[in-house]
Amino acid sequence: AQTVTQSQPEMSVQEAETVTLSCTYDTSESDYYLFWYKQPPSRQMILVIRQEAYKQQNATENRFSVNFQKAAKSFSLKISDSQLGDAAMYFCAYRRRVEYGNKLVFGAGTILRVKS
Amino acid sequence: EAGVTQSPTHLIKTRGQQATLRCSPISGHTSVYWYQQALGLGLQFLLWYDEGEERNRGNFPPRFSGRQFPNYSSELNVNALELEDSALYLCASSHGLGRKPQHFGDGTRLSIL
Q: What DSSP line would sit under chain A, residue for residue?
């Protein structure tokens, strides 16, 4: 079974600075998807960024980027120029690459606090 | 485009009762997923429906069940409620194809007294 581990229960960052959230996973498969979701106090899970395991290039979305190390099974999220609106719980998630949908396996989450 | 909608926002029940949670997917999405987010337990996969069929089920007892309607909306039913069923229940939808990401609703907070 696949597992996802987020070893940082909580992180803090000063506004405008950069922070990196860690995620490791365990799988025996070679092709899969990885995601970072953000859950603000409003509760809705918002997709931040996704990575396809067969792509070597790290995904980027504006201020958000990932460091995907397939051999190490590591998938960290870097947030640049942090903003107050980035404060939320961040979840790393894994999904098998199959032709037809599948469940997400989530890590325990990291609370990100942004200081002004 | 309207997102995933869930109702009710909050549901309060007592032990032994039955709860019904509802989810409307994004227009065009055929797959609906249910997840439980309980305090201290993280997000756990419950059920996946696509084209009206149950496709996969997480490690939950049979008193957790659901269905998907012809319009792709879905219901999650929880029978014989227990205190530990108190959680945020999140619904997500996606296109049927595996490479499409899941989009989540705001959740239903189920509180068992």
A: --EEE---SEEEEETTS-EEE--EEE-S-S-EEEEEEEE-TT---EEEEEEETT--SPPEETTEEEEEETTTTEEEEEE-S--GGG-EEEEEEEEE--SS----EE---EEEEEE-
